């Protein structure tokens, strides 16, 4: 616009100047008509320039209008974009909240169903059914000597801040034994992997193995510990083995076994495994270089090369002339016979208040 005004002003001045000059020339001089025409022709370029400026002015105006229109369009698009983003965010937030609410509802429903199942299920054990005078959970089976043999909850902080279910034998050798293993009818699979043996498996009302990690914790609390093993064949013949020391080391040593002096009538078939690591079908820690004893003999034990006892072998039901993969104790029915029942337990010296026992019952106790 400034350019337009400037050029227009210049043209007016120029035209006026030309007009005045022409008038003066015409006044002072006598020109013929054809000469006057020549002077008028000098004004043509000026008029043409003014026409072009006016055209440019129109173009500038048109462009200004277009810019104004584009600016308004841009403002409208920007407003629409903000509105669209706001609407989408609100919709997304609403959908996410709906998904979260549905997930929470599903979780609550599952939790209610689980609680209902638990409340309706028959408990494996019930501490309240045990008639004892304790107002607190015992730390060991030795604390329960005035009670009957049963399934109890032991509070052992060294293992967990939660109660540990355990079967206590309060009759054998003055009681105080915590049962750590039982074989009695072949209902439980003992040919298991490393993790199962570390954590323990089975049922307190059936066959079970308490777990290597629990054995480590329990046998590390006080020393010495005692180990008591009962054995029975299918003819009803019973034997036992007792060891004056029993300890299972930590996971960092692959739960190395330590046993002490033997006594009993079953024969000593565990001292030969003293100092050896525990092996399973997927964790070969034995001293045999040519095979994995656990995998080959279908068990899990503190194997050397390979065993004198294999109490976690297969439950084969008596004589097994073609196999040595059963529940074996070298000096009781030897290797070609799979025993009917077997149990092992440990107990601390009675001078300790907190003591533990391990005993595998042949009839009525189980561990989960």
TrEMBL record:
Residues 53-113 form a coiled coil. PROSITE patterns: FIBRINOGEN_C_1, FIBRINOGEN_C_2. Residues 132-341 form the Fibrinogen C-terminal domain. SMART domains: FBG. It holds the Pfam family Fibrinogen_C. Gene3D superfamilies: Gamma Fibrinogen, chain A, domain 1. One of its GO terms (cellular component) is extracellular space. InterPro entries: Fibrinogen-like_C, Fibrinogen_a/b/g_C_1, Fibrinogen_a/b/g_C_dom, Fibrinogen_C-term_domain, Fibrinogen_CS. Keywords: Coiled coil, Disulfide bond, Signal. Residues 1-22 form the signal peptide. SUPFAM superfamilies: Fibrinogen C-terminal domain-like. It comes from the Eukaryota. PANTHER family: FIBRINOGEN/TENASCIN/ANGIOPOEITIN. This is Fibrinogen C-terminal domain-containing protein.
């Amino acid at each position: 616009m400034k350019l337009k005004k400037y050029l227009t002003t210049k043209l007016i001045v120029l035209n006026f100047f030309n007009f005045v000059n022409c008038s003066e020339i015409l006044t002072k001089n006598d020109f013929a008509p054809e000469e006057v025409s020549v002077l008028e022709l000098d004004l043509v370029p000026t008029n043409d320039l003014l026409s072009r400026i006016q055209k440019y002015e129109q173009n500038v105006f048109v462009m200004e209008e277009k810019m104004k229109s584009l600016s308004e369009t841009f403002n409208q698009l920007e407003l629409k974009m903000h509105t669209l983003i706001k609407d989408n965010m609100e919709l997304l937030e609403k959908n996410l909240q709906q998904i979260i609410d549905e997930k929470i509802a599903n979780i609550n429903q599952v939790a209610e169903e689980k609680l209902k199942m638990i409340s309706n299920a028959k408990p494996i054990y019930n501490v309240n059914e045990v008639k004892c005078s304790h107002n607190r959970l015992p730390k060991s089976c030795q604390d329960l000597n005035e009670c009957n043999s049963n399934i109890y909850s032991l509070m052992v902080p060294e293992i967990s801040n939660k109660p540990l279910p355990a079967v206590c034998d309060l009759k054998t050798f003055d009681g105080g034994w915590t049962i750590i293993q039982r074989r009695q009818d072949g209902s439980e699979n003992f040919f298991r992997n490393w993790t199962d043996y570390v954590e323990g498996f089975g049922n307190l009302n059936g066959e079970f193995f308490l777990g290597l990690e629990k054995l480590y914790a329990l046998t590390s609390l006080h020393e010495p510990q005692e180990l008591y093993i009962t054995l029975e064949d299918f003819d009803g013949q019973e034997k036992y083995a007792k060891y004056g020391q029993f300890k299972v080391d930590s996971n960092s040593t692959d739960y190395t076994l330590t046993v002490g002096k033997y006594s009993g009538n079953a024969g000593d078939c565990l001292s030969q495994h003293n100092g050896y690591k525990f092996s399973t079908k997927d964790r070969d820690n034995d001293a045999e270089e040519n095979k994995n004893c656990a995998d080959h003999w279908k068990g899990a034990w503190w194997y050397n090369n390979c065993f004198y006892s294999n109490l976690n072998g297969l439950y084969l039901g008596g004589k097994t002339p073609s196999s040595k993969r059963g529940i074996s104790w070298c000096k009781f029915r030897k290797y070609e016979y799979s025993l009917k029942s077997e149990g092992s337990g440990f107990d601390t010296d009675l001078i300790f208040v907190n003591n533990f026992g391990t005993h595998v019952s042949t009839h009525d106790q189980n561990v989960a």
